[in-house]
């Protein structure tokens, strides 16, 4: 029996979503910009997807720009604001724990002469609104803070930061909602959010579709120029099938949220309890202020996390070393480092990430396998607990 | 238990002045509001001669407020709380009402009105008592009786006391349907939807007429008009769209008339057909998006020659507006972005290179007399397809399974 615990890397697509994709891709394959009837059908599908997604996110259809995914949407938000408003100012505020698709565009902008303030986080993995308030300057054009951290699941105080920014109407507020959508609710209006990022494959949609919310009145310089699709903001023939699939996935995911969020929270609590009972592990995810689906812990010293991942894989249990994107590089977890757990522990982070499809029956065999893997690997390396 | 706004108080627009007909107006408004709020089954609507109450019964007020803003015949409305005619209850209710607003750093005053003279406190006493209570129980709120940010209005009526704090402007105008029915000539451009909106604002029910010339105009142009009417249903509830097959008429005119007169004749044919549809659907006027002097067919000379085909009132709500004003209004009512989609409509395809800006009626009649258009016009009227659009309907959904 497979136990899939890597849902923050990607989720298994809902079967209905794959069906919708296949139907659209095979029957409504025309280019939505084509003038003929088939093109019109594709365009109507696109519009209906936009309307459904907008309604579910409580925004206007005209505020949605479809992208190829979360990385593009984050790049577009950050660079799009930077180009558009560079005469207004060249200072950006973000955090030390952002996903690389936010952090790297910021680095690129630094090379181009922008200044970026990276806010540190506390031991619970959270920044505070006061830090943002202190970092704000007259030339700050953008604050970009993720909603749910992808490595440890810390939920950032978006509403409080929004309240601070309400007094700075010239500073735009971008929120990376890739990990939070469908798991942790967020009131876009109340939080004063100008831009937010969503990616379909994190809620059982397919890769190749994501979106950037761009509040009415906010202008962005396009990154991808061409045929002028997406109201001139993002050129390229629309990926209609994946976008329709995203609309369906979002509907199903939000329905699952309504039905199962209580169960998911209980599941996470049980996981935390079971893992806390293994004395050689250090739990990195705070019990409070964290999302209901992400748990991060560090292995005892001497065990290499990638070896541990492969060891678990033998029992068909799938977990991650910190975030999947960076797990091919051997580097300490950026988020864990920022939380101040020390370099050793930050190098040995393991992430379990749940979906509404995970069941409590999985906990016992998975925890047993984790214990066994630690035992096996400690014996191989012969070292245990000489460093924390 | 925490006290919450439990109702919305609605103040009528102009119709409060309409003496005898008021009952009709109020009933129609009630009907329009009930239709608009069909998605909220728990609400109740109470109405009286000078105001209406929507009892929320647990339904959320934000989406209801958003919808009310699009209903014609409402001057303004406010979230309200009701309590017993008893001083302590009034004080607590007023406090609860102000606490639900972002009140910190703001100024306020209390304006009490005692309609029920049995109530033992005079208005000034009530102002004082309630004001003092609010001051004691809140932080960061100060009194300003001249220009308060928040005006806490208290009305002591026979059936209870009502407290409101914040007036929201409604769409104004008269309830749709109280002024009769008119046909709207809808092209797909920016102007005609705005004309339809303004006609509805004056209480007219409208039926839209669109001229469709396949293959010169595409299905998309037709879909665009359907989308425009759908957007107008936000204000009009339920709107019929008549789609007139116009290709044959247009070709006959194009082939049989001197080029510079084809445009004016086409317009005359459209108005004739619209008038025939008007008779059939028992309307009493025709609404167009014409404004003066923008294009060849809208010079006064053209208008005179076109209008000559009927003595039905032709209402032109945009006649006094500048183009920029029209565009601004189109944006506000949500039709602009649909209108600017670049699909050909039948007006743009057959436009002659140099239309007459000052056509002579005599000449038009002379050339038209050499054509036998009447049977074609009749056929167009008979073959007209009618679609009914309703705000509440979802998409006509062949794609339902995919979403």
From TrEMBL, chain A:
The prosthetic group or cofactor this protein requires is: pyridoxal 5'-phosphate
> Which regions form coiled coils?
247-274
Query: Which GO MF terms does the UniProt record name?
Result: cysteine desulfurase activity
Query: Would the keyword Iron-sulfur turn up in this protein's UniProt record?
Result: yes
Superkingdom classification of source: Bacteria
Domain Aminotransferase class V, chain residue ranges per copy: 3-364
Tell me which EC number(s) this protein carries: 2.8.1.7
Assigned keywords, A-Z: Coiled coil, Iron, Iron-sulfur, Metal-binding, Pyridoxal phosphate, Transferase
Record Gene3D superfamilies: Aspartate Aminotransferase, domain 1 (3.90.1150.10), Type I PLP-dependent aspartate aminotransferase-like (Major domain) (3.40.640.10)
Family annotation (InterPro entries): Aminotrans_V_dom, Aminotrans_V_PyrdxlP_BS, Cysteine_dSase, PyrdxlP-dep_Trfase, PyrdxlP-dep_Trfase_major, PyrdxlP-dep_Trfase_small
Top class in the EC scheme? transferase
Similarity comment: family membership:
Belongs to the class-V pyridoxal-phosphate-dependent aminotransferase family. NifS/IscS subfamily.
Protein name in UniProt: Cysteine desulfurase IscS
- The species is Geobacillus icigianus
From TrEMBL, chain B:
Q: Which SUPFAM superfamilies match?
A: Adenine nucleotide alpha hydrolases-like, THUMP domain-like
CDD domains (alphabetical): PPase_ThiI, THUMP_ThiI
Pinpoint the THUMP domain residues: 62-167
Keywords attached to this Swiss-Prot or TrEMBL record, sorted alphabetically, are: ATP-binding, Cytoplasm, Nucleotide-binding, RNA-binding, Thiamine biosynthesis, Transferase, tRNA-binding
Residues binding ATP: 185-186, 210-211, 267, 289, 298
Do the record's keywords include Nuclease? Answer: no
| Main location class | cytoplasm
**What InterPro entries does the database record attribute to this sequence?**
Rossmann-like_a/b/a_fold, ThiI_AANH, ThiI_fer, ThiI_N, THUMP_dom, THUMP_ThiI, tRNA_STrfase, tRNA_sulfurtransferase_ThiI
Q: Which Pfam families match?
A: ThiI, ThiI_fer, THUMP
Q: Per the record, what are the reactions this protein catalyses?
A: [ThiS sulfur-carrier protein]-C-terminal Gly-Gly-AMP + S-sulfanyl-L-cysteinyl-[cysteine desulfurase] + AH2 = [ThiS sulfur-carrier protein]-C-terminal-Gly-aminoethanethioate + L-cysteinyl-[cysteine desulfurase] + A + AMP + 2 H(+); [ThiI sulfur-carrier protein]-S-sulfanyl-L-cysteine + a uridine in tRNA + 2 reduced [2Fe-2S]-[ferredoxin] + ATP + H(+) = [ThiI sulfur-carrier protein]-L-cysteine + a 4-thiouridine in tRNA + 2 oxidized [2Fe-2S]-[ferredoxin] + AMP + diphosphate
Q: Which GO terms label this protein's molecular function in UniProt? A: tRNA-uracil-4 sulfurtransferase activity
- What does the record give as its pathway? Cofactor biosynthesis; thiamine diphosphate biosynthesis
Physiological role? Catalyzes the ATP-dependent transfer of a sulfur to tRNA to produce 4-thiouridine in position 8 of tRNAs, which functions as a near-UV photosensor. Also catalyzes the transfer of sulfur to the sulfur carrier protein ThiS, forming ThiS-thiocarboxylate. This is a step in the synthesis of thiazole, in the thiamine biosynthesis pathway. The sulfur is donated as persulfide by IscS.
Kindly give the PANTHER family that the UniProt entry links to this protein. TRNA SULFURTRANSFERASE
Family from the record: Belongs to the ThiI family.
The UniProt entry, under NCBIfam families, shows: tRNA uracil 4-sulfurtransferase ThiI
Q: What is this protein called?
A: Probable tRNA sulfurtransferase
Q: Which gene encodes it?
A: thiI
């Amino acid at each position: 029996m497979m136990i899939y615990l890597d849902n923050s890397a990607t989720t298994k697509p809902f079967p209905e979503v794959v069906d919708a994709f296949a139907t659209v891709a095979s029957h409504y394959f025309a280019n939505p910009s084509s003038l003929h009837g088939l093109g019109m059908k594709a365009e109507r599908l696109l519009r209906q997807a936009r309307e459904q997604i907008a309604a579910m996110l409580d925004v206007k259809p005209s505020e949605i720009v479809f992208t190829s995914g979360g990385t593009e949407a984050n790049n577009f938000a950050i660079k799009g604001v930077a180009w558009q408003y560079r005469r207004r100012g060249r200072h950006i505020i973000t955090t030390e724990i952002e996903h690389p698709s936010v952090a790297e565009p910021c680095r690129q902008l630094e090379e181009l002469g922008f200044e970026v303030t990276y806010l540190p986080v506390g031991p619970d993995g959270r920044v505070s609104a006061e830090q943002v308030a202190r970092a704000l300057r007259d030339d700050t054009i953008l604050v970009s803070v993720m909603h749910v951290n992808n490595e440890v699941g810390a939920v950032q105080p978006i509403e409080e930061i929004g309240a601070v920014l309400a007094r700075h109407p010239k500073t735009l507020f971008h929120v990376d909602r890739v990990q939070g959508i469908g798991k942790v609710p967020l009131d876009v209006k109340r939080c004063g959010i100008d831009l937010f990022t969503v990616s379909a494959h994190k809620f059982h949609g397919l890769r190749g579709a994501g979106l950037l919310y761009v509040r009415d009145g906010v202008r962005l310089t396009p990154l991808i120029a061409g045929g002028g699709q997406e109201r001139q903001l993002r050129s390229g023939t629309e990926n209609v099938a994946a976008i329709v699939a995203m609309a369906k996935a979002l509907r199903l995911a939000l329905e699952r949220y309504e039905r199962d969020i209580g169960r998911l929270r209980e599941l996470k609590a049980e996981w935390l309890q079971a893992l806390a009972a293994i004395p050689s592990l250090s739990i990195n995810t705070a019990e409070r202020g964290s999302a209901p689906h992400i748990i991060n812990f560090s292995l005892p010293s001497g065990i290499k996390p990638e070896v541990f991942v492969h060891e678990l894989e033998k029992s068909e249990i799938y977990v991650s070393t910190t975030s999947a994107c960076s797990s091919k590089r051997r580097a300490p977890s950026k988020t864990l480092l920022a939380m101040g757990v020390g370099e050793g522990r930050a190098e040995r982070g393991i992430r379990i990430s749940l979906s509404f499809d995970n069941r409590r029956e999985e906990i016992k065999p998975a925890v047993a396998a984790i214990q066994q893997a630690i035992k096996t690997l400690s014996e191989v390396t012969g070292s245990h607990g000489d460093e924390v | 238990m925490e006290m919450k706004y439990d109702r919305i108080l609605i103040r009528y627009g102009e119709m409060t002045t309409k003496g005898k007909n008021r009952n009709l107006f109020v009933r129609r408004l009630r009907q329009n509001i009930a239709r608009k709020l069909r998605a909220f089954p728990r609400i109740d609507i109470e109405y009286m001669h000078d105001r209406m109450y929507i009892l929320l019964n647990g339904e959320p007020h934000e989406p209801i407020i958003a919808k009310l803003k699009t209903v014609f015949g409402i001057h303004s409305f406010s979230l309200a709380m009701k309590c017993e005619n008893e001083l302590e209850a009034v004080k607590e209710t007023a406090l609860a009402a102000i606490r639900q607003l972002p009140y910190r750093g703001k100024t306020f005053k209390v304006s009490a009105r005692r309609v029920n003279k049995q109530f033992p406190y005079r208005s000034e006493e009530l102002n004082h008592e309630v004001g003092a209570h609010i001051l004691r129980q809140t932080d960061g709120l100060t009194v300003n009786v001249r220009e308060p940010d928040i005006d806490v209005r208290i009305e002591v009526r026979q059936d209870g006391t009502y407290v409101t704090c914040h007036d929201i402007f409604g769409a104004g105008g008269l309830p749709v349907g109280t002024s009769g029915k008119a046909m709207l000539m809808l092209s797909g451009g920016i102007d005609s939807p705005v004309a339809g909106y303004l006609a509805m604002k004056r209480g007219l029910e409208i039926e839209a007429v669109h001229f469709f010339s396949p293959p010169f105009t595409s299905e998309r142009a037709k879909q665009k008009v359907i989308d425009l009417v759908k957007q107008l249903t936000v204000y009009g509830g339920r709107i019929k769209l008549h789609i007139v097959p116009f290709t044959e008429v247009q070709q006959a005119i194009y082939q049989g008339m001197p080029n510079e007169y084809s445009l004016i004749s086409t317009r005359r044919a459209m108005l004739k057909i619209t008038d025939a549809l008007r008779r059939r659907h028992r309307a009493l006027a025709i609404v167009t998006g014409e404004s003066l002097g923008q294009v060849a067919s809208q010079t006064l000379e053209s208008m005179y020659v076109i209008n000559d085909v009927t003595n039905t009132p032709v209402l032109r709500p945009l006649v006094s507006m500048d183009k920029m004003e029209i565009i601004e209004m189109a944006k506000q009512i949500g039709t602009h972005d649909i209108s600017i989609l670049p699909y050909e409509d039948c007006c743009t395809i057959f436009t002659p290179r140099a239309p007459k800006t000052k056509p002579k009626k005599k000449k038009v009649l002379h050339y038209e007399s050499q054509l036998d258009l009447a049977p074609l016009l009749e056929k167009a009227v008979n073959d007209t397809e009618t679609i009914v659009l309703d705000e509440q309907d979802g998409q006509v959904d062949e794609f339902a399974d995919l979403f």
